[in-house]
Design goal:
Blueprint (H helix, E strand, L loop, with lengths): L1 H21 L3 E7 L15 E3 L11 E7 L6 H14 L4 E17 L6 E14 L1
Parallel strand pairs: 2-4
Antiparallel strand pairs: 1-3, 3-5, 4-5
């Protein structure tokens, strides 16, 4: 009985930790553009996050897509995520080109006849690594 009680307590502690940290994470993906140069990784501390395209000459290396799991994710965490992903493409900067709430998924509810589809809305942010 003691083992069973200890494993339940351990399981609850693990679940609470996942709930507390899971809502403060950012899912990311990146795509390198075809035909672009393959550069060595850069230092994340040197990557700039820009809101407008720079006027100086630059090369577009790829896109980074971020989806925060909740509205409570801090902007600095999202920017750090962009920096880390941009470094893998060899970028010096990431230009945010899209920041909107959109449909990111759906689920079906109801009985066999009369089912309905419910949309899941989420924030999507896209940056171009340069």
């Amino acid at each position: 009985m003691r083992y069973f009680t200890r494993s339940i307590a351990s399981g609850l502690a693990t679940a609470m930790l996942l709930i507390a940290t899971g809502c403060n994470t950012v899912s990311t993906s990146r795509v390198q553009y075809l035909g672009g140069p393959k550069l060595a990784p850069t230092d994340p501390a040197q990557v700039q996050i820009l809101r407008t395209e720079p006027t100086r000459p630059h090369i577009r290396l790829g896109e980074i897509r971020a989806e925060p799991y909740s509205d409570n994710v801090e902007v600095s965490k999202i920017e750090d995520t962009f920096r880390k992903q941009a470094t893998k493409l060899g970028a010096d900067a990431a230009v945010v080109v899209y920041d909107r709430t959109q449909v990111t998924g759906a689920y079906v509810t109801g009985p066999w006849f009369g089912r309905s589809v419910q949309e899941i809305q989420g924030r999507v942010i896209v940056a171009v690594a340069i």
